[in-house]
Amino acid sequence: MVGSIEAKSLLSNGSVQQNGLNLEEKLDEFRRLLGKSDKDPLRIVSVGAGAWGSVFAALLQESYGGFREKFQIRIWRRPGRAVSRSTAEHLFEVINSREDVLRRLIRRCAYLKYVEARLGDRTLYADEILKDGFCLNMVDTPLCPLKVVTNLQEAVWDADIVVNGLPSTETRQVFEEISKYWKERITVPIIISLSKGIETALEPVPHIITPTKMIHQATGVPIENVLYLGGPNIAAEIYNKEYANARICGAEKWRKPLAKFLRQPHFIVWDNSDLVTHEVMGGLKNVYAIGAGMVAALTNESATSKSVYFAHCTSEMIFITHLLAEEPEKLAGPLLADTYVTLLKGRNAWYGQMLAKGEINRDMGDSISGKGMIQGVSAVGAFYQLLSQSSLSILHSEEKKPVAPVESCPILKTLYKILITREQSTQAILQALRDETLNDPRDRIEIAQSHAFYRPSLLDQP
């Protein structure tokens, strides 16, 4: 791949080395931590086959898949999802543009079905093409072949590590089902959640429920065994070996060895103890990415208009982080980096653009063919509901009376009216920016920094 750094080499004993680190030694070291015997492979399953979940599984398969007696990875997705004729035609073009992929499919006697699908003589299914390395949400980026399982019980019952690649809106339901298959388990699995999204609960006090919390509640797996991995990156670019970094957050027992195990020359994984806050920030940036896409489309990519929006949306995010975090300044870099990459190339910004252009509409829902779940939509509703609670009231800077925090977040309010109640069109986002009554974004930041805003109860913490 042009522009990428490929730092693998073959040692004289046949084992693979990455930048001086023997992959087999890394694998053995992690296996020892789990107490795995010589003939008992490390079993990893990725639950959900969206872009990030599929790429994550493919990266591990490419790194460790050669050690078959020591490592196994599989990916679960629901069966029966048909590939549209237009997608099949595009997929055929992708295959024929990549000699390595074409040769691989011919070798595996798998090419003919793509020819038949291109001609309309056959229907392909998402789980079927995933086995050949094609994720339905990013067919332009062929992955390595993957072991695909469509039976959830078969996928998870003996897994040492479960990777949650599901949207936050599906996480609780699927892991409640998984918990039924773990009732007789002796060992406790490790769960790594890739999901960025939140739910809001109002009882006993208003608070946020993150995917890791949903998993903990649904399965009873101790929270020290549930971690979050996220960072400013685009799945397809990571698979193409473009340099990227991420953080794995959670209890020290597992986050440090996992960071070492997952780290690759082009994908640097740091570790951090702040699980919930990083997870919430991953959901927050999706909210404002949708609005950024709308502004870009409605102003014909005006740099000035986008910068005005960026000033307002970042001030709102800073305002919200002061409510959610005791030391919000530590989140500024990671949050802005994640927001930046999402605005540049993320699916949430794309959704906002397509909505504003009229190429998709709100009646199509927030699961879009070829893109997957647009998690920012549900996050808009969750953050609005949370910040609308009168019990969280703050003093209004000008009117000097208590108001709900959402009253200081005009962009969030407007996105709620566009996406959730649908009482306004996408044009309303521009009206919100042009409203002469809006305060200077700097004022919002100063208010947040000069008041004791932090509410630990919002993250369900004492």
TrEMBL record:
GO cellular component terms listed in the entry, alphabetical order: cytosol
Subcellular location: Cytoplasm, Cytosol
InterPro entries cross-referenced by the UniProt entry: 6-PGluconate_DH-like_C_sf, 6PGD_dom2, G3P_DH_NAD-dep, G3P_DH_NAD-dep_C, G3P_DH_NAD-dep_N, NAD(P)-bd_dom_sf
Lineage: Eukaryota, Viridiplantae, Streptophyta, Embryophyta, Tracheophyta
Species whose genome carries this gene: Brassica campestris
Protein name: Glycerol-3-phosphate dehydrogenase [NAD(+)]
Swiss-Prot/TrEMBL keywords: Cytoplasm, NAD, Oxidoreductase
Domain of life: Eukaryota
Residue ranges of domain Glycerol-3-phosphate dehydrogenase NAD-dependent N-terminal in the record: 146-246
GO biological process terms, semicolon-separated: carbohydrate metabolic process; glycerol-3-phosphate catabolic process
Catalytic activity, as annotated: sn-glycerol 3-phosphate + NAD(+) = dihydroxyacetone phosphate + NADH + H(+)
Predominant cellular place of this UniProt entry's protein: cytoplasm
Coiled-coil intervals, chain numbering: none
